[in-house]
Amino acid sequence: MLRAAVTEGTETGRRVDAIMDRGELVPDDVVNQMVSDRIDQEDWRKGFILDGFPRTVAQAESLTAMLEQRGVRLDAVIELKVDETSLVERMEKRVADTLAAGGTARSDDNRDTFVRRLDAYRNKTEPLLDYYRRRRELITVDGMQGIDDVAREIEDVLTRRSSGSRR
Ligand SMILES: Nc1ncnc2c1ncn2[C@@H]1O[C@H](COP(=O)(O)OP(=O)(O)O)[C@@H](O)[C@H]1O
After folding, report:
1. Where do the annotations place AMP binding (predicted)?
2. Binding-site residue set for AMP
3. Which CATH number belongs to the domain containing residue 31 in this structure?
4. For a surface tag, which of 46, 65, 134, 162 has the fewest beta carbons within 10 Å of its beta carbon?
5. Which of 6, 20, 106 to probe ligand 1 with, by most ligand atoms within 8 A of CB?
6. Does ipTM surpass 0.90 in this model?
7. Which residue numbers belong to the known binding site for ATP?
8. pTM of the entire structure?
9. How many domains does the chain have?
10. Would residue 42 count as lying in a domain?
11. Is 6 in the pocket of ligand 1 (CB under 6 A)?
12. In a domain, 167, yes or no
């Protein structure tokens, strides 16, 4: 959603473009508002996946409040666990593949930005693991497996946990 806002050149997009290029987190109020507006569209009757949100404890608290207000409960919070060295290799492969296909690499796919993104993860996002562990919503999936195995495991988790979870 943030990338779409940048591409479309909306007011929010212009506000967050440089922050994303630096690999820092966009302010909580901006992302919280974006997610809240999206959930209000109510075209998600069959459910939704929030990819990359929440990324801070403040965002998680805001999400908890948003969902409580709407009487919705999370089925699961999925942590994809991957070694940092592999993450850098994957990012570099993504750049190489994109360039080989004649495309343009993402402006935040470079080592400097990546180091800052990992830093933001360690300082701001990792504390969420405890937040969701305490709420018994956290499931950790080994992201070092191949793409198909990761996908299958996530699907299994969601199938196991989604039935009857709506309030
Ligand atoms: N929940 C969030 N809170 C704050 N910033 C975010 C959030 N999600 C994405 N961003 C911003 O967008 C950038 C790209 O994130 P994202 O598109 O999720 O990356 P990827 O697709 O590589 O997982 C982040 O580095 C950050 O600047």
Report:
1. 3, 24-26, 52-55, 59, 106, 117
2. 3, 24-26, 52-55, 59, 106, 117
3. 3.40.50.300
4. 46
5. 20
6. yes
7. 94, 145
8. 0.90
9. 1
10. yes
11. no
12. no
